[in-house]
């Protein structure tokens, strides 16, 4: 199943497997052959890990998750995958050492040299591993400029900075970002009856593209808050960790300017460093830390059931005064590879074929109950909600990935706002960088704020624009940082 899902990725690492023993065969001493093979194998296995999680070679997404916090959290979730990676490393080292010794014994100098050249040519092709490594270099080495100069480099003339920001309140806002809950789940009626019903009842955009710099949870959140992909021009695997302020205008800035109460409900503020980044937008984080001992212990702080319960509590507090509110919610239980089962849901959800299907059905149930709560309590009378996945489900080789991969994979966008308010028709293709504009439009918040999407011509593919302007976007984000000295 695993190899059937990623055949091109498996084929793409063959040049590395060819180059390693051939290079080693040119070395006279065994110990130095071994050192080279170990280094090359470490690179090969790391590429395989990247392919498993993101479907491609090591890129910026992989790079920024190579910090101690995320590695420890990842090992806690992906124990089996970590064990397989270690086993794979040992087997490849053993096999490549045998091949290198065989090649050295039998000579074939010109054949080895020819294969080595062919292998290197394959690796330097566009979208190959070296190409992706160069992209990491481009992003991380983007130099910091004066913020206004960085804006000009992307031709964002007229970009409104924070001192000039104006905003007037509209309707209340609830944004729900669903962990890895991509569009393919909508094709599983036994899993997502509530989400399917909501898609028919409200405004539903079935095609939202996932873009570079927006394909993991923290990056997705940053993108929908600022309208800018999470590509940061600094050689740091924990971007923005030392940032005290950010000069980019975010949803938090706009809504606070318009007099909104703003909060972000999530399982744990420590999840992928999101709590700190959210605070940069002037939004208070609400999590298990605010309710010690009230809810069952769960991976990443809270189960989805309790995240929605906390959201209800915060809504009650919001409604005690006349100020408008904006509540942001991130779920977490459907995290790859198999999700986190909440045993309390067993009495509510029938058994499913696999754990992720059960967890997905649980999320659908809790989401359906939450939207019904909003309706029953007349919160929707003056509140606009938005529902979308944060990114595609990561991983490979699981039953749920096999099902999702049977069709073209994509995100979606759902709201009780009309297409007239959103200023988009449901047949339109959406992009993650469009989200802050859609959220403000749908809630009828009046503002002079602009976002990157407003400066991209309508006839240009936005994903291609991001890919070709990665360095400039990274420079913009880096230049927007005000760092603690």
Please explain how this structure is put together.
With 485 residues, the chain is α/β, with parallel strands linked by helices. It folds into two domains: 2-140, no CATH class; 158-483, Alkaline Phosphatase, subunit A. The chain is built from 21 helices and twelve strands. An eight-stranded mixed beta sheet has the order 6-5-7-2-8-9-3-10, with helices on both faces. It has a two-stranded antiparallel sheet with strand order 1-11. The chain has a two-stranded antiparallel sheet with strand order 4-12. The longest helix has 28 residues, at 79-106. The radius of gyration is 24 Å and the shape is globular. Mean pLDDT is 92; it is low at 1-7.
What topology emerges from the helices and strands here?
Layout: H1 2-5, H2 7-12, H3 14-25, H4 30-54, H5 60-64, H6 68-77, H7 79-106, H8 109-123, H9 129-140, H10 147-153, E1 167-168, E2 172-178, H11 193-201, E3 203-209, H12 217-226, E4 243-246, H13 251-257, E5 261-265, H14 274-279, E6 284-286, H15 304-318, E7 325-330, H16 355-376, E8 383-389, H17 399-404, E9 411-415, H18 419-422, E10 430-431, H19 435-442, E11 446-447, H20 462-468, H21 470-480, E12 481-483
Parallel strand pairs: 2-7, 2-8, 3-10, 5-6, 5-7
Antiparallel strand pairs: 1-11, 3-9, 4-12, 8-9
Short description:
The protein is 47% helix and 11% strand.
Q: How much strand?
A: 5-15%
Count of extended strands: 12
**For the record, what is the CATH homologous superfamily label of the largest domain?**
Alkaline Phosphatase, subunit A
Number of domains: 2
Q: The CATH topology of the largest domain is what? A: Alkaline Phosphatase, subunit A
The first-level CATH class of the largest domain is given as Alpha Beta
Strand order of the largest sheet: 6-5-7-2-8-9-3-10
Taking pLDDT < 50 over at least 5 consecutive residues as the criterion, the unreliable ranges are 1-7
**Outline:** globular
Biggest sheet descriptor:
8 strands, mixed
CATH architectural label of the largest domain: 3-Layer(aba) Sandwich
Task: Indicate the percent of residues in helices.
Answer: 40-55%
Whole-number radius of gyration?
Answer: 24 Å
Which structural class do you get from the secondary structure elements? alpha/beta
What is the first-to-last residue Cα distance?
A: 50 Å
Q: Please, what is the average pLDDT?
A: 92
Annotation field: number of helices: 21
């Amino acid at each position: 199943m695993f190899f059937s899902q990623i055949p091109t990725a498996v084929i793409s690492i063959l040049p590395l497997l060819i180059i390693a023993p051939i290079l080693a065969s040119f070395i006279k001493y065994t110990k130095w052959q071994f050192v080279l093979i170990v280094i090359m194998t470490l690179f090969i296995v790391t590429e395989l890990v990247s392919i498993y999680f993101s479907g491609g070679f090591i890129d910026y997404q992989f790079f920024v998750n190579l910090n101690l916090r995320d590695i420890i959290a990842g090992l806690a979730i992906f124990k089996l995958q970590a064990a397989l990676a270690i086993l794979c490393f040992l087997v490849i080292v053993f096999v490549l050492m045998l091949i290198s010794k065989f090649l050295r014994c039998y000579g074939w100098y010109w054949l080895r040299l020819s294969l080595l050249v062919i292998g290197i040519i394959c690796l330097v092709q566009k979208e190959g591993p070296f190409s992706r490594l160069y992209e990491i270099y481009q992003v991380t080495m983007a130099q910091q400029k004066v913020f206004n100069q960085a804006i000009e480099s992307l031709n964002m003339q007229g970009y409104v900075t924070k001192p000039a920001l104006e905003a007037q309140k509209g309707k209340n806002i609830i944004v729900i970002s669903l962990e890895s809950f991509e569009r393919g789940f909508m094709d599983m009626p036994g899993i997502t009856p509530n989400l399917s019903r909501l898609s028919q009842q409200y405004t539903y955009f079935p095609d939202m593209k996932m873009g570079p710099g927006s394909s993991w949870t923290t990056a997705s959140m940053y993108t929908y808050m600022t309208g800018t992909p999470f590509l940061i021009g600094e050689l740091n695997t924990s971007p923005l960790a030392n940032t005290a302020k950010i000069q980019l205008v975010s949803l938090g800035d706009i809504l606070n300017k318009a007099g909104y109460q703003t909060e972000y409900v999530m399982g744990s503020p420590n999840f992928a460093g999101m709590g700190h980044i959210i605070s940069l937008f002037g939004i208070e984080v609400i999590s298990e830390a605010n309710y010690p001992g009230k809810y069952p212990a769960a991976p990443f702080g809270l189960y989805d059931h309790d995240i929605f319960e906390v959201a209800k509590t915060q809504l009650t507090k919001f409604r005690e005064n006349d100020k408008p509110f904006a509540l942001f919610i991130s779920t977490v239980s459907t995290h790859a590879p198999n999700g986190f089962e909440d045993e309390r849901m067993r009495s509510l959800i029938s058994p499913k074929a696999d754990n992720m299907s059960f967890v997905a059905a649980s999320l659908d149930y809790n989401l359906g109950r939450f939207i019904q709560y909003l309706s029953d309590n007349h919160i929707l009378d003056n509140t606009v909600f938005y529902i979308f996945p944060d990114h595609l489900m990561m991983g490979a080789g699981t039953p749920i990935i096999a099902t999702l991969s049977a069709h073209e994979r994509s995100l979606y966008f759902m709201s009780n706002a009309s297409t007239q308010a959103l200023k988009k028709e449901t047949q339109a293709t959406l992009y993650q960088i469009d989200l802050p504009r859609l959220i403000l439009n749908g809630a009828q918040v009046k503002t002079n704020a602009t976002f990157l999407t407003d400066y991209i011509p309508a006839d240009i593919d936005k994903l291609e624009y991001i890919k070709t302007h990665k360095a400039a976007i990274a420079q913009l984000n880096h230049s927007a940082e005000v760092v603690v000295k």
